[in-house]
Amino acid sequence: MFNSGIVSRFSQLETPFYYYDLGLLRQTLQACQTAANRYGYHVHYAMKANFNEKVVSTIQSFDFGADCVSGGEVKAAIHTGFDKNKIVFAGVGKSDKEINTALDADIFCFNVESVQELEVINELAAAKGKTARVAIRINPNVDAYTHHNITTGLEENKFGINTWQLDDVVAALGKLPNIQFLGVHFHVGSQITNLEVFKNLCARVNELAQWFEDKGLEIKVLNVGGGLGVDYYQPDTNNVADFEAYFKVFADNLKVVEGQEVHFELGRALVAQSAALVSRVLYVKNGQKKNFLILDAGMTELMRPMLYQAYHEIENLSKASEGSHIKYDVVGPICESTDCFRKDVELPESFRGDLISIRTAGAYGEVMASGYNLRDKIQSVYSE
Description:
Layout: H1 4-11, E1 17-20, H2 22-37, E2 42-46, H3 53-60, E3 65-68, H4 71-80, E4 87-89, H5 96-105, E5 109-112, H6 115-127, E6 132-137, H7 166-173, E7 179-185, H8 196-214, E8 221-223, H9 243-253, E9 261-266, H10 268-271, E10 275-286, E11 291-295, H11 304-308, E12 314-316, E13 325-331, E14 340-348, E15 355-358, E16 379-382
Parallel strand pairs: 1-16, 2-3, 2-9, 3-4, 4-5, 5-6, 6-7, 7-8, 8-9, 11-13
Antiparallel strand pairs: 1-10, 10-11, 10-15, 12-15, 13-14
Helix pairs in contact: 4-5, 5-6, 8-9
């Protein structure tokens, strides 16, 4: 991602900032599109992963759909030029205002997570003389084997409708005239690297789709969500996710009848590797037991390590990797002890002013930045 010319350019810029490699982003999008097209699959970009305007515009140019989880994301998708017929709106707590925004935009589908939500959407659609298209998000009780904070498909999670509630869903669908049932929706979690999880998901989708068909409800859309993970440990070696293997799992295991569409909602896998957080060393504190690199970026710029104990590769861009290394706790300036990117990171001996790169920060990085401690808003720099 970084050559001497890029590092020289960085040395002239104020830090911290997010650096986006738009060439790598396009390479990733092309790989996903090619693999999905092989099977006629529909891909919606999960806007929550990164809504940097230039990043989202690049994704839209590849004719992906948009997966939104707020009214603001629906508005952003429309503003960026996403086809309204490719916009889906998920989320366990859609407000009336957000639902009305999506109804006014005439989006493709609401992914509905409770019977009560079905009733509210029906009421709001009726008031506008509209019919809302919906897919029912079902909790499949499939373990994603990922961090508990980003697992969403188990019975103890707040997301989706549990299987024992499905009879109530069918009853509600039969008496809500302003609802059009399209199909079923699933999402089991994020940063999934074990493809067996998706094979297990396919088995549940097959079973539950057949259950709806047996109830006389035609399934037009099978939305299997997203969750494909990326390699945080080797961002240069594996900088594009294996979309071919991912989609093949569904091609081999998902039962699809003529006329049905298969939809995906990918976020992290499309954008994570395309960005790094670039920071400077403010101070070096050497102790008897610990050495600290104190950066000008902190949890206000990248929350993942503090929130999820997430791993990110950390590099000193100002020093060659050869020679003696020292272990540092790489920390930020925020007045919280949790403001630590990683502990005991082996780096070349580092000094005040050195440029530090925190890799694979394109997903859930910039979008989660905050103004805590009245910090300045993080800036973005692009490869072109």
